[in-house]
Please model this.
Amino acid sequence: MNILYLHGLNGSLKPKKRNILEAYGTVFAPSIDYQNNPNAILWLYDSYKNKDIDIVIGSSMGGFAGFHLSKLLQVPALLFNPALAKRSVPQHIIETPKNNNTSIDIVLGAKDTVINPKDTLAFLGNTLSQKQLYKLTILPNLEHRIPVAVFEEAVDLFMKDYLL
Model:
């Protein structure tokens, strides 16, 4: 299985989280300069469209990019606190299919003060006519950063759905 992991703004994939993902397959985790590349989604698509990506996982800005890439690549996605409604850096959103013909799983932290979960829910509500299947998990005590234990549990649940 090929996994495309997309980090958040000024972030990277930490070793403990990489180890969790590597238990399931090959991990591609590019370094993304969202601030200086307003075409990050197109750049990522061009870089990975021929790599047989099976799933996309992203957090925050990476969740935003992952949302669109999962539709372009037609693969499932697991997104943590995705910056869907608002972003602190401009990004061009390219035209994508209306859905990815599978599921987009989203984990939201109710205590996130960086990406407002209410804005994310409103954004998703505005996409319901696109017939995209969403699986939402709202964790009442989760803030913006994703602890390793939360990441591991979400990844395990997600993989059980897609490895069957």
In short: The chain has one domain: 2-162. The helical segments are 15-22, 40-48, 61-73, 117-125, 148-162. The chain has a mean pLDDT of 95.
